[in-house]
Design goal:
Layout (H helix, E strand, L loop, with lengths): L8 H4 L11 E7 L6 H8 L2 H4 L2 E7 L3 H10 L4 E5 H8 L5 E9 L6 E3 L16 E4 L5 H11 L9 E4 L5 H6 L5 E4 L1 H10 L3 E3 L10 E8 H6 L1 H20 L1 H7 L8 H6 L12 H13 L18
Helix pairs in contact: 2-10, 10-11
């Protein structure tokens, strides 16, 4: 754990680093999902530059790799799911959220089965193997939350960790009976005719806080000006996304492996939250405690960056 929590000298710098133009340099690590579109809009439309930020956007492969990059100084701000940070906080991980990124929206993501499967509903998943992108993650947390609605407990199913790029193939090859699909994988499944048996962000998971933009406590405290500029630019770009869904869909193929046709049909957020929300953090902590992910709730203040 100590190695994973080490922070490089660059991450501990007490002042905002600047490029040749005088703009503060900022390395942002993202997962290629629709909810990060405002970051690309801000870059492509010059919004970051307008607010004095020289931004480099990098693609991450998993929540754990993004956390590791933040801790090592390989990135300054990254999109991280709340469950990962809450779990880490109980073991000394010191990441703080500077803004929201995504909340659960019915119709986005789902548990899919093979064509011709006898699984037709949540109740049919009892005793089955369910592929999720991470263990102890927001995926198996929310799946457990939804399955509880059908009277299915954590011991009634077997979760299997399947990397996002392999989620659809693992399902079709029979490695799992149902698989959590999102983004490109979900779009491909719909095109191929794989049935979605659970809308994971419906029911008790509607509006559930999923992920936010985080950095190390040390980096945030040493770079308050850059954080404020990031928050302002993100809010502006998110408002553009809110007002112009077609701009979102046109931007998606620039960072996701989507055809123009897929970009027009993939589920995109209908709301683009940015401000930190203590009530939302309490919901995450209470749910994690209820389902056994935490021994006791995490206080929202411990994972939210204070305003500059």
């Amino acid at each position: 754990m100590a190695g994973a929590l080490a922070i490089s000298a660059s991450a501990c710098s007490g002042s905002d680093s600047a490029g040749k133009s005088g703009d503060a340099k900022l390395k942002i690590l993202v997962s290629p999902q629709p909810n990060v579109t405002p970051i690309y809009i801000a870059k492509q439309k010059g919004i970051f530059a307008k607010h004095g930020l020289d931004v480099t956007i990098m693609a991450g492969q998993s929540g754990s790799s993004i956390v590791a990059a933040l801790q090592s100084g390989g990135a300054n701000i990254g999109m991280v799911n709340y469950v990962t940070v809450f779990s880490g906080a109980s073991h000394g991980l010191k990441l703080k959220f500077v803004a929201q990124s995504r909340v659960g929206q019915p119709g986005a993501d789902g548990l899919f089965t093979k064509k011709g499967s006898a699984i037709r509903s949540m109740a049919d998943l009892k005793g089955k193997k369910i592929g999720v992108p991470g263990m102890g993650s927001v995926a198996d947390l929310v799946t457990g939350l939804r399955l509880a609605e059908a009277g299915i407990g954590p011991k009634d199913v077997k979760f299997v960790q399947v990397p996002v790029p392999n989620a659809l193939s693992a399902l079709n090859n029979g490695q799992v009976d149902a698989s959590w699909l999102t983004g490109t994988q979900e779009s491909q499944a719909k095109t191929a005719g794989n049935p979605r048996v659970v809308d994971v962000w419906a029911g008790s998971a509607t509006g559930f806080p999923i992920a936010g933009w985080a950095g190390t406590d040390t980096w945030i405290n040493g770079h308050r000006s850059a954080v404020t500029k990031f928050q302002t630019a993100l809010k502006e770009a998110s408002q553009l996304a809110q007002n112009d869904p077609q701009l979102v869909r046109k931007t998606l193929p620039t960072f996701m492996h989507l055809t123009p046709a897929q970009a027009t049909s993939i589920a995109i957020p209908t709301t683009w939250p940015t401000g930190n929300d203590p009530a939302a953090m309490k919901r995450v902590g209470d749910t994690m405690t209820k389902l056994g992910f935490l021994d006791k709730p995490i206080q929202p203040q411990s994972v939210l960056a204070q305003s500059a």
